[in-house]
Structure formats: structure tokens, C-alpha cells
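Worked example 2:
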Amino acid sequence: MSTGVASRAPARVLPAVAWVCGAGVVLAQIVYSMADPADRLPTTVLSVVLFCVASTLDAAARRGWRAAGALVAVAGGGGLLAEAVGVRTGFPFGDYDYTGTLGAEVLGVPVLVPMAWVMMAWPAVLVGRALGRGWAVVPLAAWALASWDVFLDPQMVDAGHWAWAHPAPGLPGVDGIPLTNFAGWLLVAVLITGALHARLGPRADRETDLRAGPAPVLYLWTYGSSVWAHAAFFGRPWVSLVAGLLMGAVAVPFAVALWRAHR
């Protein structure tokens, strides 16, 4: 009896800790939006770290520690490699440089950056697996991940965390961010989400992918809060509209799929 209780404990603890981290993400992002721009770095760091932990624990709770390890290795390692190559060669994102404001770096890339790839890659894979079938899973997952950057990049450029050498041409209404960046994100997102989807296996266990958890909730929170924040706090209403449409193409159907699965 005691062995059974002990074996069930991690299954209860992991989601609980992940939910606590997720609540911390929401609180940190609310504080970020209301803080003076000069005082936003601590909440940026806290938000990314907590979101990364929440996604990793969500992966472990759904698919086990091997899946969580694969997430960190593929998304974190792959994101780091892509960024390290990017800042040195300009491929695949375009010519850009980090300004040294985001703290400790590895291979010229702030540690927070691969953590950000981890935090959003997992919910993006869940989006793709929830909405797609067969070959469509990876393109949907990649879009779910890459479209988020249409919100992220203007916010981080405006905050002074990185800068583009050739910021034009860009998406309509998304000034200062080159189209090469979005193309590079799509390429890297396809590789990362494709590898994670292959690691998880066929989309047969859809109930596990659609199970309630912090990763899906945080993905939808990120979408909704980004639409609102760019319009109301960051002075980027066109980013709110354009990115809202692009990310909403998967975020809204994903919200509907979750609602139907749990009604």
C-alpha cells in the first residue's frame, strides 16, 4: 500500500509544482506590463525561468522524464545552436546582436534565450498534435511557435535586448523586425517541433496531449496577454493586430479544442 502511495506521489506533485510556476509566470508578466521600462528586467528573467520550468514539468507529467529531457535537449540545445550560429553568421534569422542586457551568456547567447525556446516549444508541440493529423502536425506546431515571435521580437528590441543590422523589409505593421527573422524562426521551429513530435510518437494518445495543464494554459495566456499588452502598454497596436491574427490562427482553434475536450 505504501509503495503504491509513493509511486502516485510524483504524479500529483509534478503538476502541482508546474501550476505554481505557471501562476508565477502570470503574476510576473502582469507586473512587467505595469512597470517602468527601466525596471522590467527582473520580471523578464523570472517569467522565462518559471515558464521554462512549468513546461518541462508539464512534459514530465504527461510523457515522463525522458520526454522532458528530450524537450530540454532538443529545444534548449537546438535553440542555443541556432542562436549561436545566427549571431555569428546572420543565418538563419538575419544580422543581429545581443546587447548584453540579458545576463549570463553561453556561446555569445544569453542563457535566457534557449530557456525561452524550451518554454514555448512544448506547448507549441501540444498545439500541433491537438489540431493536426499526419503530416500537418509539425507545420501547425512550428507555426504555433514561430508566430509567437511576432509578439516577442518587437517587445525585446524596444527594450534594448538585441538589435537588427537590417530591420527592413518586415511584416506590415511590425516595424524594426526583418522578414528574415520570421523565416528563420519558421525553419528552426520546424526542426525543433518535428524532432519533439517524432520523439513523442504517433498522435494516437490525443487525450494526453489535450489534458489540462499549465503548458496549454500558459500558451493561451501568452497569446491573449500579448494582444492586450502591445495595444495597451507597449505602444504597438499594429503588432497587436498582426501578431494577434498570425498566432490566433492556431491559438483560437486550440482554445476551442481544449474547451471541447473538457466540457
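The two ends are 34 Å apart (CA to CA). The first strand starts at residue 96 and ends at 98.
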